[in-house]
Each structure stands twice: as C-alpha cells, then as structure tokens.
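Students often ask what a 'structure token' actually looks like in practice. Rather than answer in the abstract, let us consider Chorismate-binding protein, a protein of 326 residues. Its sequence is given first.
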Amino acid sequence: MHDAFAHVGGVLATGLAEVTCDLAVLDSGGWWAVVITYEGKVTCARFETVRPAPLPWAPWTGPTDWTTSMDEAAYVDGVRAIRDAIADGIVYQANLCRVLTAPLPAGAEIAGLGARLARGNPAPYAAVIDVPGARVASASPELYLSRDGDVVESRPIKGTGRTEQDLLPKDQAENVMIVDLVRNDLGRVAEIGSVTVPELCAVEEHPGLVHLVSTVRARLAPGRGWPELIEATFPPGSVTGAPKSSAVTLLDELEPMPRGPYCGAIGWVDADSRRGALAVGIRTFWAEEGLLKFGTGAGITWGSDPHREWRETELKAARLLEVAAQ
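Now compare that with the structural description of the same chain:
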C-alpha cells in the first residue's frame, strides 16, 4: 500500500497526520487537503510536511471501455425536461451532468494519472489527492473559492466553445445568471457592501477550448470562517443552476448516478496563514471500488439546443479521456 499524499497548489504534502469530516478544522491550524463531494461528503486531510516538489512517479495504465450514466437519447430527454421546467418558471438555468465509468486497470495509481494530466492538460487548479476516502486527479480550470485572510473570491466559468467565435449570446446570458447567484451566495456571509464583480465574462483560453470567466470578490463578515463560507455557497453555482435550490432538486430527479467529487470542491487550506483555494471539481477523475469515474455536463437554458448540449459534454470529456488513455 502506497503512502497517502496530496499535490495541490504547487506543493507536495506528505506525512498524513489526521483525516476528518469537520470543516471547522480549516480555521484551526495546519495544512489541509480538502475534497468535498457534490453530495456533501467532506474529507479534510492534515499533512505534517508540505514543500514545493513535483508529483511523485507512479504507474498508470489507461482505462478502456467507458460507459456513461446517460446516453445521447437520455441526455437529450433531460435537456428537454429542463427546458419544460424553465417554461414552467421552476428554474431558469440548470447544469445537467453525466458520469463516465471504466474499470480501473490493475496496478494503476491515481498519481500516475495526475502526472499525465499535468503534461497533457495543464490547469490552474490541478490537484492530485490520495487519502483514505478520497482518490482524486483533477485538471480543474475553475476557482470555487479562494481565501486570503478575510478576502474571498470565486471565479465561475459559464460558456464553452472550441474558439471564441463559437461562444453564443446564450453563453453570456448563462454566465451573468450564475454571477448573480454567486454574488447572492457570498452576500450571506460577507460584510454588507463588500461584494464586487471585478471582471465579467472575460474570455480565457484552456487546452482545446475557451471559457467565459467572471470574478466575484467579497470580504467575510466578522466571526465567519470556512464552515459558514462553504455552507453559504455549496454546491458551486456554476454546476447547479438558478435558482440554486430548485435546480438541485430538479437535477437530483434527472441524473441517475451520484456526482461524487465531480462538481464538488477540491483544493487546499493553510489554516495557519488563513489562506486557501478550492477548485470546482470539474475535469476530474476519481477512483472508488475498482472503478475510475469522470463527469461531464453542460449548462441548460431556454436557448439550449439539446443535441448541441450533448456535443458540449462530449467536447469537454474528449481531451481528458484521450490524455487518460495514454
């Protein structure tokens, strides 16, 4: 059995000291790797040794024979159901996801997959975490929450295309809706008047595609820490929908498989310096019970074309599955 470790935020953490599901530890002391599943299962792992270092070498064999929790026909039906819900005034945006599953090849370790992702699909919030209860390799481009003292920031992504020319007015509308939602979420734990949007719908280039990205910033109100911040904002707005509570309920009915770490939060917290960064768990693989899983999805609005949305989920998955197959 290999040792637990985390490689996130450009550092390698070793010497596992404790694992807990209590978010309050993130305001106590020490350096923590964090994985929160979309369903709300929390894994916080404290490490004794944290230093800038590359990922440790580990074997990897690419999986084959992926299956999907929803095929094209089922996904298209789901998109139509969301459009009906929009017509009925239940939601005005929802993010429909599906989970791909393949047998985990014998001897393949998540660190080996992480190294391939780092080479083939470098990402600003790349993370590999291998601790009891959470084995994750992520190439996430999206910041869910960062914190520096009392200043917190979220950078929701909404709108995806191969090139900037592919982005539609629907993508811009979707982004603005989610920015509004994130502002409201942060407003519940922020000092009154401190929530700002320094950047709206900026175009960002990532391997193989472009995204629209906005930045929402706030200052935490006195007495508010990580537990209150996460409770007010989780699951991330960009992977649920608006209004969030209605979207979450609708998606629970439409999606046949739990999302797990996909669409959850993955990252690090240094409780001593009161700093940290949690990514949205997209472009993320995780291993459990002998299986490797990967999630993909698309934001659905009234303007959505069901088959185009299916193709967006294929586009988002294609490059990552190709990297993992090597």
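One point worth highlighting: The chain is about 25% helix and 40% strand. Ask yourself how you might have guessed this from the sequence alone, and why that guess would often be unreliable.
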